[in-house]
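From the shared-data thread, chain only:
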Amino acid sequence: MKLNLLKMKFLIIVAVIFLVDIVSALEDCNTKFNLTDEEITKLKRAQLTDPSEDMKCLIECEMEEAGLIKNGELQEDVVIEKFGKENANKILESCRGEKGSTNCDTAFRLHNCFTRTRRRAALLEVLSRKV
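Structure, as tokens:
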């Protein structure tokens, strides 16, 4: 039980650090792209249906600033550093093959995959505690 609690605290700390990186990158990148307040809100809430090219490129900028991608390529060592080995392995297994038609599209696909994978892992964690 203590190990699970410790693991959960660690995951929360990692998530907060990652979120701080992303929010900082978002502020830096937001000045480069012409997104509406509504698009920014959707991005923060991960409601990314039918995104504009600017939104995809903002995501690319954020991920580049955070070091997660470089020239459209996933930086696996940074993913491990930011998410921890266990979580990173899940993310990398699920998302490694994501490729789009442009670097912005690749970043968008990776972002969606990261989000799905993290949500799935969180759900499995909750379900495993009920057993």
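Helices lie at 2-30, 37-44, 53-65, 76-83, 85-95, 103-130.
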